[in-house]
Design goal:
Blueprint: E1 2-5, E2 9-16, E3 19-27, E4 37-46, E5 51-55, E6 62-65, H1 97-100, E7 106-113, E8 122-124, E9 129-130, E10 134-137, E11 143-145, H2 152-163, E12 171-174, H3 183-206, E13 211-214, H4 219-227, E14 235-238, H5 240-253, E15 261-263, H6 270-273, H7 276-283, E16 287-289, E17 295-300, E18 305-310, H8 320-342, E19 346-351, H9 358-372, E20 379-381, E21 389-394, H10 401-405, H11 421-433, E22 443-448, H12 450-457, H13 461-471, E23 474-479, E24 488-492
Parallel strand pairs: 1-14, 11-12, 14-15, 18-19, 22-23
Antiparallel strand pairs: 1-2, 2-3, 4-5, 4-7, 4-13, 5-6, 7-8, 9-10, 10-12, 16-17, 17-18, 19-21, 20-21, 22-24
Helix pairs in contact: 4-5, 8-9, 11-12, 11-13
């Protein structure tokens, strides 16, 4: 893990086998809101959508689904929470949103998804407070174990241990790093989390909505708390103040990991030293080359993310089917890495190269499932269809890398395409023909983008000649690099 911090932003890179697999960015002026707890005021209740809008003091009202008010705790996938225990009572017949909430009502809520440019934050009344080993669920009676702890005997042991903890109300989840831990570690974690919840409740009684009651840790401490485990080789930190805070934090929650934290002292920045900048730039491109010479193309759309696999320059060794298998196997490994790195979410459709043999299809699908198990976000995957398509759904709570680091192109307004030079020259001809009979001078100045100017003097020269003859004027071309590709100005000289 690499943590690079400066006065403006903190960036964290997670590497597996020296390859970037996850990137976290937090601009200090725009901290993420997931995990923050607010006292909010209900502004609108929408029975038709079974949802409500809540003013928590942000630019847009936050959005609250009825399932986040009335139901048992949701799976909280970002915290790797398992399903409820079998002995817990099932909830049947959910109340309507207007039975639960009224406009003007003040409630305690927690942000579970950051706001997007066209959406407010998503919130829940089921507050979850993560510690190092445990997650406290103060509003819901629920006990579980991280789904990433797969050993059944260990899961049963952990459920037994947390059942002995002095918890008067609410529930608990054992986090992945809680594996093999004992009662003492869980008790200290619970003491801290219980005190934190009591402070939040006390503050809520003293203030009026909308008010921030509790802000989650900053990015560096949050990622260290949630991700750093004994299987990490090293945690490099570029920034002395951040290094000291991380060491102090780990000294309190898990002293055994302090030795893995190293302060980076070289002249080059940490991300430059490990080649992270180049990998981030590559993650913003649609085409990703594979080592074999094949490539994948990633196209995010409004409704889904489409990923296409191509053999490219890879011609294989023996026969076509083996070439296809090799490309698909290599592709699924890179696709999952890119999904995690770019934090792609929603519906993801992967168009694999068609495979004839069923055995090969199963082999590729098994490889895809294996790679997805490395992903902390919750995913569901459907079998390869007869058309060679695989559908994956993936949950995310923060803006993806593309939204975080880029903005819509002012030329194409996010279409990804602009009009061709030939089309623009013909459009210009049509607009200028509308001026027939309106020009009083013998010369006009036509100010255009350099690309359009070049075309009108070369391959589209016939358009310029026709306009001069039809309009009865001499047209002077002015090439202006500041001129938008699709715009032009006409000035009488």
């Amino acid at each position: 893990m690499l943590i690079e911090s400066d006065p403006h932003q903190t960036r964290i890179a997670v590497l597996e086998d020296d390859r970037l697999t996850e990137i976290f960015v937090e601009r200090h002026r725009h901290r993420g809101m997931v995990g923050n707890v607010y006292k909010g005021r209900v502004t609108r209740v929408l029975p038709g959508m079974q949802a409500a809008f809540v003013d928590v003091g942000l630019e847009r009202d936050a959005f609250l689904y009825v399932s986040d008010v009335a139901s048992d705790v949701e799976s909280m996938d970002e915290l790797e929470i398992d399903e409820p225990r079998a002995e817990e009572p099932a909830h049947h017949g959910q109340p309507s949103i207007d039975e639960l909430l009224k406009p003007g009502q003040e409630i305690i809520v927690q942000v579970v998804k950051d706001p997007l440019p066209n959406k407010g934050a998503r919130i829940s009344t089921h507050v979850t407070l993560p510690g190092r080993y445990l997650v406290l669920l103060p509003t819901v009676k629920h006990f579980g174990v991280s789904r990433r702890i797969e050993d059944d005997a260990e899961r049963e042991r952990l459920l037994g241990v947390i059942g002995e903890l002095p918890l008067s109300s609410g529930g608990l989840i054992v986090r992945t790093v809680g594996e093999s831990k004992g009662l003492d570690q869980f008790e200290s974690d619970l003491t801290y989390l219980s005190r934190l919840w009591e402070k939040i409740r006390q503050r809520a009684t003293r203030v009026s909505a909308p008010t921030l009651l509790h802000q989650d840790l900053d990015l560096a401490l949050r990622v260290v708390r949630d991700l750093l485990r004994s299987d990490y080789a090293v945690l490099w930190v570029d920034g002395e103040e951040t290094y000291e805070r991380i060491v102090e934090f780990l000294d309190q929650v898990q002293p055994g990991l302090v030795g893995k934290v190293k302060l980076f002292r070289q002249e080059a920045t940490l991300f430059e030293q490990f080649g992270i900048e180049e990998q981030i730039e590559a993650a913003l491109k649609s085409k990703v080359w594979l080592k074999s010479g094949g490539y994948i193309v990633i196209n995010p759309t409004e409704a889904l993310v489409a990923i296409d696999v191509n053999t490219g320059r890879f011609v294989g060794q023996s026969n076509l089917e083996d070439t296809v298998l090799h490309t698909n196997l290599e592709a699924v490994q890179e696709i999952v890495r890119q999904i995690r790195l770019r934090d792609l979410g929603g519906i993801i459709v992967i168009d694999l190269i068609d495979m004839i043999e069923q055995e090969h299809r199963e082999q590729v699908f098994t490889a895809l499932e294996g790679e997805l198990r490395k992903d902390r976000a919750k995913t569901k995957v459907l079998n390869i269809s007869e058309f060679g398509l695989v559908e994956v759904t993936r949950k995310r709570s923060r803006a993806n890398l593309e939204r975080l680091l880029t903005q819509p192109c002012p030329y194409c307004s996010g279409r990804g395409r602009i009009k061709s030079v030939a089309t623009l020259c013909l459009n210009l001809r049509k607009e200028l023909l509308h001026l027939r009979g309106q020009l009083g001078q013998s010369e006009v100045l036509l100010r255009v983008n350099p690309e359009i100017s070049r075309a009108l003097q070369q391959e589209e020269r016939a358009i310029l000649t026709e306009l001069e003859n039809t309009l009865g004027v001499h047209i002077l071309l002015q090439s202006d690099p500041e001129m938008h590709h699709e715009r032009f100005d006409v000035v009488e000289v």
